[in-house]
Amino acid sequence: MSDAYRVAVVTGATSGIGKAIVPVLRERGLAVYAVGRNEAQLAELCAATGALPVQADVRDTARIAAALKGVEVDVLVNNAGILSTRAAFQDIDPAEIDAMIDVNLKAPMHLTRLVLPGMVARRRGHLLYIGSSGGQAAFPNMGAYGPSKAGLSLFCDNLRCDLLGTSVRVSEIVPGRVQTALYRTSIADNQAQAVLYDGYRPIQPENIARIVSDVIALPAHVDVARVEVFPTDQATGGGSMVKFQSA
Ligand SMILES: NC(=O)c1ccc[n+]([C@@H]2O[C@H](COP(=O)([O-])OP(=O)(O)OC[C@H]3O[C@@H](n4cnc5c(N)ncnc54)[C@H](OP(=O)(O)O)[C@@H]3O)[C@@H](O)[C@H]2O)c1
């Protein structure tokens, strides 16, 4: 690791991938500010790992800024994200469009804007983003989630242009299917386990946490720009075509 890194912020720390990243960064000796909405889950995580709780909605930049006032953030892991519904775009609840863009794209941009001036001034920092395979290719019923993650992916590339010469690193981790609670509202009747995970071999959150840790651990002059990571048993691509039906 760039030995100079001392402080990390992890969003979405109360579940899944974020919850797995926090202890790994603590093991690396970093102070970790864990951002989450659920006070009880945050308290439990912080008691177990020594992380510092920041109870906030990730869209509430002002609240997070207040909690981090005076803190020199070296590592920001923008992990919080939602796939709140899966529906064909003609059927999607319009409110879900805003929700997914706000949480998955706008919040990471605003948190980045919050910590970045300090990183640039110190010439030290690492911005990490948990993207998605759904942001690299089209999938059915992902008409808002996919573009939110595609936007995030391009944002990473734009940042790398703007940050050239500052020593601040930008890494996007792009997973396929990971066994978490991400689908809890988008697959009916709590069937996510049966539909997505039973009988499959999905990635585990700890696998992604290890990748995050390893990416940070490389020397400061090495920036892993993007890592795509899939279950061995998952592939994307191919075409689909349906037979014409007259109205
Ligand atoms: N699981 C997969 O297959 C998969 C694949 C590719 C990418 N990803 C990405 O991985 C990231 C982590 O998701 P996960 O799979 O670990 O799902 P998860 O278990 O549902 O965890 C998501 C986390 O984000 C938090 N979060 C959501 N909305 C928030 C908000 N408005 N303010 C603060 N925190 C908020 C959740 O907190 P609450 O409990 O308070 O809602 C939770 O801690 C997401 O960006 C997701 O898009 C996941």
Descriptive notes:
With 247 residues, the protein is α/β, with parallel strands linked by helices. It has one domain: Rossmann fold (3-Layer(aba) Sandwich), CATH 3.40.50.720. The chain contains 7 helices and 7 strands, in the order βαβαβαβαβαβααβ. Helix 2 (39-49) links the parallel strand 2 and strand 3 (52-55). It is globular, with a radius of gyration of 18 Å. The termini are far apart. The model has no long low-confidence stretch (mean pLDDT 95). Bound molecules: NADP nicotinamide-adenine-dinucleotide phosphate. Residues 12, 14-18, 36-38, 57-59, 79-82, 103, 130, 132, 175, 177-178, 180-182 line the site of NADP nicotinamide-adenine-dinucleotide phosphate (NAP).
Could you name the key traits of this structure?
single chain, 247 residues, alpha/beta, Rossmann fold, 7 strands, globular, binds NADP nicotinamide-adenine-dinucleotide phosphate
Detail the topology: elements first, then pairings.
Layout (H helix, E strand, L loop, with lengths): L6 E5 L4 H12 L3 E6 L2 H11 L2 E4 L5 H7 L7 E4 L15 H29 L2 E6 L14 H18 L5 E8 L16 H6 L7 H13 L8 E4 L18
Parallel strand pairs: 1-2, 1-4, 2-3, 4-5, 5-6, 6-7
Helix pairs in contact: 1-7, 4-5
Bound molecules: NADP nicotinamide-adenine-dinucleotide phosphate.
NADP nicotinamide-adenine-dinucleotide phosphate binds next to helix 1.
Distance between the termini: 61 Å
Q: Helix tally?
A: 7
CATH class call? Alpha Beta
Largest sheet: 7 strands, parallel
